[in-house]
């Protein structure tokens, strides 16, 4: 039973990932759809924190 609890804790640490289309359909990112299309790849999955970090890095970027 101890092994089962350890496994449950390990799985809880993993973040859920989403596709670009799922982010575009979400209410949370409804005002940033254009940014999502610019910073996320269509064929990769991202956690919410990864998507927010990519948006933040893009917005902090310098104009060339």
Order of helices and strands: HHHH
State the end-to-end CA separation: 58 Å
Give the class from helix and strand content and strand pairing: mainly alpha
* Main sheet properties: none
Explained architecture:
Helix content is 59%, strand content 0%. It is mostly helical and 64 residues long.
Quick description:
This protein is an all-alpha fold.
Features of this protein?
mainly alpha; 64 residues
Please write out the topology.
Elements: H1 2-13, H2 20-25, H3 33-39, H4 48-60
């Amino acid at each position: 039973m101890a092994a089962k609890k350890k496994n449950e804790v390990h799985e809880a640490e993993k973040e859920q990932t989403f596709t670009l289309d799922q982010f575009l359909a979400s209410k949370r990112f409804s005002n940033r759809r254009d940014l999502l299309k610019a910073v996320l790849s269509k064929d990769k999955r991202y956690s919410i924190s990864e998507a927010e970090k990519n948006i933040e890095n893009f917005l902090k970027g310098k104009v060339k």
